[in-house]
Every structure is written in C-alpha cells, then in structure tokens.
Amino acid sequence: xxxxxxxxxxxxGESVExxxxxxxxxxxxxxxxxxxxxxYDPGFMSTAACESAITYLDGEAGILRYRGYPIEQLxxxxxxxxxxxxxxxxxLPTADQFEAWRHEITMHTFIHENVRxxxxxxxxxxxxxxxxxxxxxxxxxxxxxxxxxxFDPASRNKQIIRxxxxxxxxxxxxxxxxxxxxxxxxxxxxxFASNFLSMMWKVAEPRFEADPVLxxxxxxxxxxHADHExxxxxTAMRVVGSSHADPYSAxxxxxxxxxxxxxxxxxxxxxxMLTEIGSIDNVPDFxxxxxxxxxxxxxxxxxxxxxYDPRAKIIKHTADQVFExxxxxxxxxxxxxxxxxxLSDEYFTSRRLYPNxxxxxxxxxxxxxxxxxxxxxxxxxxxxxxxxxxxxxxxDQDSKIARPRQLYIGTEPRDYVGIDARS
Length: 423
Ligand SMILES: CC(C)(COP(=O)(O)OP(=O)(O)OC[C@H]1O[C@@H](n2cnc3c(N)ncnc32)[C@H](O)[C@@H]1OP(=O)(O)O)[C@@H](O)C(=O)NCCC(=O)NCCS
Fold this sequence. Notes:
This protein is mainly alpha-helical. It has helices at residues 27-33, 71-77, 80-89, 95-106, 113-119, 129-140, 153-178, 192-201, 212-224, 232-241, 247-259, 266-277, 283-291, 310-326, 332-343, 346-350, 358-367, 375-396, and strands at 4-9, 14-21, 24-25, 55-58, 63-66, 69-70.
C-alpha cells in the first residue's frame, strides 16, 4: 500500500498523488493542483504549521519528550536551566558548557533601573502582574537595540540569555509592585528557582533562604512547563517572529497569548472551582451538574492528550513533597475526590477526559503562597525557553511570513451612499 493520498478534482476528473511524510501531506503540492481552493481549518485543528525537532508529544499514549528525552527523566534528574539549554541547543550540555550557560544567565538577571522606575512603577497600583510582565517584556526591545540583528548569532544568543535571565526578575517585580512591596534585586549567589523565590518573598533579612524542597518543586514545575510544541503562545511567537520582529516583541506577543484564561489561566479556574465546591460532600452533586451540562470539570480534558497527561502524574508527586513543607492545601481532598469519581465515571472515561497539568499545579502554587494572579506569570517564566527555541528554529528554517488565507463570507460589492441618504 502506498504511503500517499490521492486527491481528485471532480470538476475536471484530474488527480494528484501526494506522499505522506512524517505524518503529513504538503499543502504546497495540492494547492498547486487546486489554485484558489483553500483548506478550511479554524483553530488549526488539522494543520501542521511547521516541522519541529524540539518537542515530541503523543496525546494518545501520554508521551512528552524534549529533544528525545522523556519528561519523566528530565523532571527527576535535570534542572530548569539545563532543560532550557537542551531545548535551545538540541543536546544536554557538558559540565563546562553548563557552567558557562549558568554563569551567563546568572550575570544577566538584573534589569535596567529605568525598566523598574519608568515602566513597572508607572502602572496603576492594582495592575495585574501578567499585564505588567507582557508590557515590560515588550519594553525591553527599546533597551536593547541590537536585538533587531536577529540573524547575527552573537546578538541572537545574547537576547536569548537576557530574556531567560530577566523573566523571573520582571515577574517578581510585577508581584512586589502589585502588593506594594519594595523591589528585591537578584541575588546571584542563588540558583535560578531560589533566586526567584528570594525576589518574591524577601522582607528584611539579609539573605533569603528558600526551603530546598520548595525550590526544587518550583524547578520541576519550570521543567514541566518549559515547552509543549505548537500551543497557542508558541504559535504566537512563531507567527510574530516570522515577520522578523525582535525577540522581545515576539516574546511579549507569546506572553499575551498565555494571558488568556483558555491557555495560561486554567489552573486558576481549578482553584476557583475547588473553592466553590467547598467540601468533599458536595463533590457528587458537582459531578452530576457537570454531566448535566452545567459547566466543566476544570483541569480535566485536553485538546491533545486523550490519556493521563504525563505532566499531571509528576505534579501529583511534587504536590505531596510540597505539602509536607507547607502543610496540606485544604482543597487537595476535594481535588482527589473529584479525580477518583471522574476516573471511574463513564461520562469522563468514554470522552477520554483525564487530569491535565493544571489540575494540581494551582494547588502547589497556592500552598507556596503565590496569589492567583501570579499563576500565568509562573507559567511564562519557564515557557520563555520553549518560545525562544521555537523562534530560533523558525529563523533557522528560513520560514515564510505567517499569512493564512480566509474564506470570505461578507457582502457582495456595493456602492458608497452618503450619510444623509442612508435609511
Ligand atoms: C481542554 C479542553 C478545552 C479541550 O477541549 P476540546 O478538545 O475542544 O474538547 P471538546 O470541548 O470538544 O469536548 C469533547 C467532549 O468532552 C466534554 N468535555 C471536555 N472537557 C470537559 C471537562 N473538563 N468537563 C466536562 N466535560 C468535558 C465536552 O462537553 C464534549 O462532550 P460532548 O461530546 O458530549 O459534547 C476541554 O477539555 C476543557 O474545557 N477542559 C477544562 C479546562 C482546562 O482544564 N483547560 C486546560 C487545558 S491544559
């Protein structure tokens, strides 16, 4: 049997055979054959927009790999900074390469004083930290004019390092401003996650000592969120980057996509749902309501995963470790009961609805003291590595500017009528 498809134009009777390569058929082949006929695919449900060597995801089997490495092994043995290097460079670093990478990132954690004083402090007192982050990242492009040199390898590498390094600083600064606390400068003697926790929580002590269990848990969450192939924000990154905009502007666009509740806000929705349920006794009624069509079980189901999200399994384990330090999040019992009932209920099993990454991550963040508004910000910090890996790959592929077609459904041509003559 040939590994190809045949398209026949019934208007002419002509056919074209197109090979199936890597699970896809090249649109260029059939669009030459069918000029002016567009493939209608809202939400890109059936469209592969690029070839990518970064992340492999099999939603049927519940598999996620970065550059070939299973997510379980990376979460168990690696660190976020090592994973960021892996995503961007394609291979794990040697000891020397890692030390140079860690040093570079650490030396770029500071932000220009004017970013803080003129931009961040210019926001309204109750500004949402994610809105502040999106704006501050975009503003960075005005500080680093060399960022426009996107085909100069040295410049490109420098912006990548700056972005990965400064994200936690901007994120913590946005939080501190929104709660009226003074800015905390980075402490370059600390590792990536501990430094972020220090910038978040330090008060008057000379040095903030993060609990190592919490630092590690955050680092694991950063690993799990570092990339997820062509999701909404990564697509935004690639689309904006395809116009050859600088990486700060493209990253700001990606972060803006992440701001939306359908993407970066689902774990917040889980916490709200669990809070509304309020007690384990109310779980059966809540499930019955969902089955009757009253809302959704937040943190369940996924566009791609049709089995247990592998990240959710790891997070569940991380949650246990965090709760040993912070005390159990009182919403955990409700979450566990929901999961237990849903996993044995025909409504959910027949639709292949399983817990996704967001089902437990919010519980961890909340137990660690992060306010709900910080949840998308916590997602943006590590996803920056994934966004940049895709941006770089897209530029190296010399990809075309993203410019989809549309099916026009508006009115036929008509003549302009002066305002006095309109009825
Ligand atoms: C993630 C999500 C948007 C994926 O949606 P999708 O792939 O477009 O799937 P659909 O919306 O077509 O849902 C398919 C069926 O499952 C049901 N379903 C999907 N997710 C559900 C959920 N969380 N709770 C209850 N029912 C759900 C739908 O009602 C639909 O049922 P039907 O066939 O009887 O109409 C969806 O599962 C969802 O809304 N989940 C909750 C929000 C969430 O956790 N988002 C984070 C994703 S990481």
